[in-house]
Amino acid sequence: MTLTEVAHGTLAGLAEINGTGRDASRGGYSRHIWQPAELELREWFIERAVRLGLDVETDRNGNIWAWWGAPGSNAVVTGSHLDSVPGGGAYDGPLGVISALDAIARLQSTGFTPRRPCAILVFAEEEGSRFGVACLGSRLLTGAISPERARGLTDGDGIRFDAAAAGAGLDPAHIGRDSEALERIGLFIELHVEQGRGLIDLGEPVAVASSILAHGRWQLRFTGEGNHAGATPMDGRRDPMIAAARATVAIRDAARAREGSYAQGSRATVGRIDAIPGGTNVIASTVTATLDVRAETDEETRALVSDIEALAADAATKENCAVLVTEESWSSVVHLDPELRSQVASTLGGIPTLSTGAGHDAGVLASVVPSAMLFVRNPTGISHSPDEFAELDDCLAGVTALESVLRELLQ
Ligand code: GLV
Ligand code: MN
Ligand code: MN
Q1: Which of 33, 80, 83, 85 to mutate to test the pocket of ligand 1 (most atoms within 8 A of CB)?
Q2: Please, what CATH class does the domain formed by 3-212+333-410 belong to?
């Protein structure tokens, strides 16, 4: 089945937003919070939800709620996010939002009346691609990040979160834990494209999630001495780029060295290196490197970070530079609610269970409400890349699964 064939039915949303936020230079999509593409997606979602007769509201943290029936307590809430990483795929986030819209549309078309309140929740800044902290909307909602810290986060252009929030019509003085909104959530279920090869190996289209790796983000700031590329001999330089390069290789090796201790292995990634001032004929004075570390337990993750801190210090010393390591965010390992998970699995006829190395808003919500996730097979096994993919038949299986789970939970 092709996108054109689904243009008017279930999954039409994939075709409708296919052109929004395409990134011509990176490939894929760049849809970052409160920038034009993401604002367009918000409008698109609101229009789609209103068409289904849902009542839409944006909460004080920028998350969008679309209520089927009157808002109330013990609600069944489903959803995901619309933002992307830079140059991301089409499915990470939007698939969960579109599937939620379609599952509700299908329930409505069969005349089903929910006995509990139900809402679609679209989280803000899940990827942390603009302000650096992943799952920022769900962290603010649950109080997992302080409003003070969130207000002061800056994007790559130095724009503060509070200024951007005000520009988007929020009152930055009122961001933060929203007990009233949280009290309405009875349970949360997020459908998501799988971001690894689990379902390929199992030969199944859909799975239920068991756990999410512990993970966090750090910044490594190497400082040396800025100087002229031509006039400075190679000996005696204090080049933080070389220190960062040494550290990057050491970080990969450190994560590999721990690979054997757990079934899933540990992961450490330097995804971005920025040089200041950043000139071709300039030895940098400062280099910042981002660090993403994940492992199967909190202890294992912390232990790897502590190895990395020592390795980064050693790399800096070898180049006569200094390094400062700063933690930017932390997420403990999440074991999704066993009861809800087995209810979902039994509703769906015993589908397989998978753990994931990707972070999700469902993982943040899991600390306050029973939460579950459904994964849809990704035949490339690749994500956070334009190569991320899902066959439409598998996406349809995902919508059918979500529809069945909602029907069961709402009756
Ligand atoms: C989000 O997808 C993450 O795992 O960082
Ligand atoms: Mn993602
Ligand atoms: Mn996602």
Answers
A1: 85
A2: alpha beta
Q: Match domain 214-331 to its CATH number in 3.30.70.360, 3.55.40.20, 3.50.50.60, 3.40.50.2300.
A: 3.30.70.360
Q: From atom 3 of ligand 1, which residue's Cα is the shortest distance away?
A: 359
Q: For residue 190, give the ligand nearest its CA.
A: 3
Q: Which ligand is nearest to the CA of 89?
A: 2
Give CA separation, 259 vs 135, 198, 309, in Å: 27, 18, 18
Query: pLDDT digits over 7-63, tens only?
Result: 568 899 999 999 999 999 999 999 999 999 999 999 999 999 999 999 999 999 999
Determine which residue's CA is closest to atom 5 belonging to ligand 1: 359
Helix (H), strand (E) at residue 311: helix 298-318
Q: Which helix (H) or strand (E) holds 300?
A: helix 298-318
The structure tokens listed for 67 are: 């209520």
Read off the pTM. 0.96
Centroid of ligand 2 to alpha carbon of 60 (angstroms): 23
